[in-house]
Amino acid sequence: MRILVVEDDRESASWLIKGLTEAGHVADHARDGAEGVALARERVHDVVVMDRMLPQLDGLAAIRMMRAEGINTPVLILSALSDVDEKVKGLRSGGDDYLAKPYAFTELLARVETLARRRAAEPQPTRLRTGDLEIDLLARTAQRAGKPILLQPREFKLLEYLMRNAGNVVTRTMLLENVWDYHFDPQTNVIDVHISRLRSKIDKGFGEPLLHTVRGAGYTIRAS
Amino acid sequence: MMLHRASRGSWRVGRRQRNAGWVDLATSYPYLSLVRTSTFRLAAIYVLIFALSVGAVLFYVYWSTANLLENQTDNAIGSEVKAIAEVYRQNGLPGVLEQIMLRTSEENHGVYLFTNPLGRRLAGNLPGLPVEATGEHGWIEFDYANQEGRSLAHHKAKAYYTELEGGFRLVVGRDVEERRRFDSIIKNSSIGGLTLALVLGLAGGLLMSRNFLKRIERLTATSRTIMAGDFSQRMPLTGTGDELDRLSAALNDMLDRIDRLMAGMREVSSNVAHDLKTPLTRIKVRAEDALRTGDERDYRMALERTIDESDKLLATFNALLSIAKAESGEAREGIAPIDAAELAADIAELYDPTIEEAGGRLTVKAPERTMISADRQLLAQALTNLLDNAIKYGLGPDGRPDVALSVSARHGEARIEVADHGPGIPVGDRERVKQRFTRLDESRTLPGSGLGLSLAESVAHLHGGRLELDDNHPGLVARLVLPAME
């Protein structure tokens, strides 16, 4: 994937680019909003990682400018401002996801890959499939190897989110935000238990495990 | 030199110098500053208005009385002249002489004179024709010598002068000396009275202002002392409960509140410093230790632990920021009507598997829709903090959490309760644990920031409610009491 990193802090930028390159992506770097918009115009990117506070042209203004020019590349906003209100403001300006600083690189990578995937996945399918696991988004049913699996509504939502991002790592914070709509982290790791329950329903008694834990990062669903 | 130049700048300089002179005068002559107080100005204006109105009333009374008296005199003189003229027409000279002699003998302050055409006196109590009496007839005023006992006195008289048939001249008048005296008495006493009122009023104004000024100066001096850093000072109270006292009391309340806030801030800062120093020191010690041994496995472990510690530090910071946000009130824009029962059920669904996994149980009792106006995210965060506490510290004797989450409405208040069956919190510690970074000794070994209950309380306060901690016999009941919507 080609990723545009718009970040004025030299150290964070080089650290980000190093990580993205190691993960097998190509990264372009812009030091301020204006340069970022210019680069986005010049080349096609899969995802833009945009810092919120930038010299010359502020991050949100840069996003608005890109959108006005018809550049619809998904944007992940990075910001030291972690309020929900700030998130809403960022998303309203045309951003697609919001990550508060400081963040773990795994979290950023997971979100970047999810964003790229979301874009590729348009238009919306009605069925999702990972290996021999299949869910029907309209009937809200799941089955594996032809056997129906009974899921609670929340479990279905959790599985749906994982399968929409199949092959990518999703973090606990992403799950809390997207499946439960809570924008804070509880002290107790409540997500792990939900995952292990889901895992016992979709993996137990079947050959190959599909739901994997990625140590220090989160979870991923994939078939080998 | 500057003052002579006709530029705008130099004019300003000149004016500033004049102003400076004013201030100097005022400070070197204390009464000048007294004159400039608002009380004195008010008193002076009041006295002036009072004097003007009293003066106007006095003048009106005097004017109408004097008019009345004058009219009476004029009428009396007029009718006498008519009567004498009538007698002259009917009875001739002897009748007139008789009439005048008769009238002169009466004690009515009358002034009479009857002369022949040459002006020689024939009858009356005036020595001769006054010089003012010229022409055929008319009103005249003149001075004449009046016999008062044995001495002569100059009196004023008002009279009507007329020429009768045959050239005889008649003067009929009244002595108006008494009225003149009455006039001057009224005038003098009015002026004296008004002057006295003005002087007394202004003196009273000065006294009042001096008293007022002294109290204001005490307030000013106290504020200066406080500004200089002595926060223990308070505004003086006289105990009269007047407006200055009320102002002082309000200022004192404000100072108390500021004092409490500052004390809170000081405590928070020192707590933050302490709570951040400890993990930072741990990180430093571990890193140094790993560097010394130089073993790759130690490096790895030190780095992993550094990440763990940083995560905890970040969690602490985030909690502090959430508290600050709730306390500043800037979170108000996120407030919308929500159903507390639904939120409780939602959170319970999130926590239920975790508690079940730990061998415990979570019971939910939220039977009715309970609408409150709240920030869903912050309230959910407060509630998860209470549940986190129940799971961490509220374990029963068997080491399992038994937690009850309930929502009810009573007396216009929504009550969201988290009750556990753990050791509870002693009554004496229940207020203290709500303070930031307070961790009871029993819980020090468990992970946590000591901010959970502080956050829950600030969230409750943000919504106009409170956080109550009670005994669950055994265990703890943590209760968010929020105003319910109609």
Topology at a glance:
The complex is a heterodimer of chains A (224) and B (486).
Chain A: E1 2-6, H1 10-22, E2 26-30, H2 33-42, E3 47-51, H3 59-68, E4 75-79, H4 84-92, E5 97-100, H5 105-121, E6 127-130, E7 133-136, E8 141-144, E9 147-149, H6 153-164, E10 170-171, H7 172-180, H8 190-202, E11 211-214, E12 218-221
Parallel strand pairs in A: 1-2, 1-3, 3-4, 4-5
Antiparallel strand pairs in A: 6-7, 7-8, 8-9, 10-12, 11-12
Chain B: H1 8-28, H2 30-35, H3 38-105, E1 110-115, E2 121-124, E3 137-148, E4 151-163, E5 169-175, H4 177-227, H5 243-293, H6 296-328, E6 335-339, H7 340-357, E7 361-365, E8 371-375, H8 376-393, E9 402-410, E10 413-419, H9 452-462, E11 466-471, E12 476-483
Helix pairs in contact in B: 3-4, 5-6, 6-9, 7-8, 8-9
Report what the structure shows:
The complex is a heterodimer of chains A (224) and B (486). Chain A is α/β, with parallel strands linked by helices and 224 residues long. Chain A has eight helices and twelve strands. In chain A, the strands form three sheets. In chain A, strands 2-1-3-4-5 form a five-stranded parallel beta sheet, with helices on both faces. In chain A, helix 2 runs parallel beside helix 3 and helix 6 crosses helix 7. The longest helix of chain A has 17 residues. Chain A is elongated. Chain A starts with a strand and ends with a strand. By secondary structure, chain B is of the alpha+beta class. Chain B contains nine helices and twelve strands. In chain B, strand 11 and strand 12 form a beta hairpin. In chain B, helix 5 runs antiparallel to helix 6, helix 7 runs parallel beside helix 8 and helix 8 packs antiparallel against helix 9. The longest helix of chain B is centred in the first third of the chain and has 68 residues. Chain B is rod-shaped, with a radius of gyration of 51 Å. At the A-B interface, helix 8 of A face helix 6, helix 7 and helix 8 of B.
